[in-house]
Write a structure and sequence with these properties.
This protein is an alpha/beta fold and 373 residues long. The chain has 14 helices and 12 strands.
Length: 373
């Protein structure tokens, strides 16, 4: 029986870390004893391992996932006057990166069942000055990359994949990050593959672009202190995060399997009109980063869960184009029907690899009780 007064978090990083504590201690010790802390052999090792895992030629480690998006945009030649298509329901990270390049975001609507951009909504959003599209794979589910790649190719538009919530996801055996010109990843601690701080990387199959990214992540240097072409930024992956990631990458597929299992349990047990799950047409490319649902009377359910000491959250409550700081750059924009439809209903419930069957059952029991009230 589940303990009445236990607390169930959305994610439990302490529990997660304790399952790999030996790996973490070995990683930290190896970096301390090496005396090399930035862009060293561990970064090179992780770049090689992660590129192989994603099925691409290159991975370029950077400081965080948002930097990865911005540097990918810059390497793709995006600049002031360009328009970049993205979605408005994914937390604002792509918008932030786009605005930092001087380009302007243009928002595509989403499928209200998958919460993702489609080839149709992408094509509705493009204009003659569309330079690129950032396709966000959200909550562990990949967008329809075969259709999007075809649509973008037909119009000469560069695809950048935002894979911050899709480590290990795939379509027909082809991994997230390997479809577009670039795939951008975050290794923030709560991600499917998270580290002990902040880190990110960009994957690509283009040798020349990979070399440009390595220059851009370190001031624009061709070699130390020499800036021949353009100003970059300081966005370097450190050795500690890389050493941790090398070890944790070997656990990723198993963690993803456990995440999928939890959400499958939820979906099977909570078969009720009052709660709808992100539509998954096939499980082979879903990695269950977050369990995001649509519920009526969201505030009431959140309060009910809180009373039962079960965490919940909203990913994400505000459309990018409605954020005051964004409006200052792009002006007032018409809302997108499907995006606006889902925002008031989104609710995230607990899902993490170490979540026990008893915890999952308790969440289900509490939600069922609410739905029947």
């Amino acid at each position: 029986m589940y303990l009445q007064y236990a607390s169930i978090p959305l994610n439990d990083l302490r529990r997660h870390g304790n399952t790999v504590i030996t790996d973490l201690r070995e990683a930290v010790e190896s970096v301390i004893t090496s005396g090399q802390y930035i862009l060293g052999s561990w970064v090179e090792r992780f770049e090689s391992d992660f590129a192989a895992y994603c099925g691409v030629q290159h991975a370029v480690g950077v400081a965080n996932g948002t930097d990865a998006l911005e540097l990918a945009l810059r390497a793709a030649g995006c600049k002031a006057g360009d328009e970049i298509v993205t979605v408005a329901n994914a937390g604002g990270y792509a918008t932030n990166a786009i605005l930092h390049t001087g380009a302007l975001p243009v928002y595509a609507d989403i499928d209200p069942h998958t919460f993702l951009m489609t080839a149709h909504t992408f094509l509705q959003a493009i204009t003659p000055v569309t330079k690129a599209v950032i396709v966000t794979h959200l909550y562990g589910l990949m967008a329809d990359m075969p259709a999007l790649c075809q649509a973008a190719a037909n119009h000469g538009i560069t695809i950048i994949e935002d894979c911050a919530q899709a480590h290990g996801a795939s379509i027909a055996g082809k991994k997230a990050g390997s479809w577009g010109m670039f795939g951008c990843f975050s290794f923030y601690p709560t991600k499917n593959l998270g580290t002990l701080g902040d880190a990110g990387c960009i994957v690509t199959n283009d040798d020349t672009l990979a070399e440009r990214l390595r220059s851009l992540r370190q001031y624009g240097w061709k070699h130390k202190y020499y800036l021949p072409e353009e100003i970059g930024r300081n966005s370097r992956m450190d050795e500690l995060q890389a050493a941790v990631l090398v070890r944790l990458l070997t656990h990723l597929d198993e963690w993803n399997r456990k995440r999928r299992q939890i959400i499958h349990h939820y979906r099977t047990a909570l078969n009720h009109d009052g709660i709808r799950f992100q539509r998954i047409d096939t499980d082979d490319h879903f990695v269950a980063h977050l369990c995001v649902t649509r519920v009526r009377e969201r505030t009431r359910l959140m309060q009910f869960l809180r009373q039962e000491k079960i965490a919940s959250d909203i990913h994400y409550p505000i459309a990018d184009y409605a954020q005051p700081a964004v409006i200052r750059h792009i002006g007032e924009k018409a809302s997108l029907p499907a995006t606006e439809q889902i925002l008031p209903e989104l609710l995230t419930i607990p899902c993490f690899p170490e979540m026990t069957k008893e915890e999952t059952e308790h969440v289900i029991t509490v939600i069922k009780r609410h739905l029947s009230s």
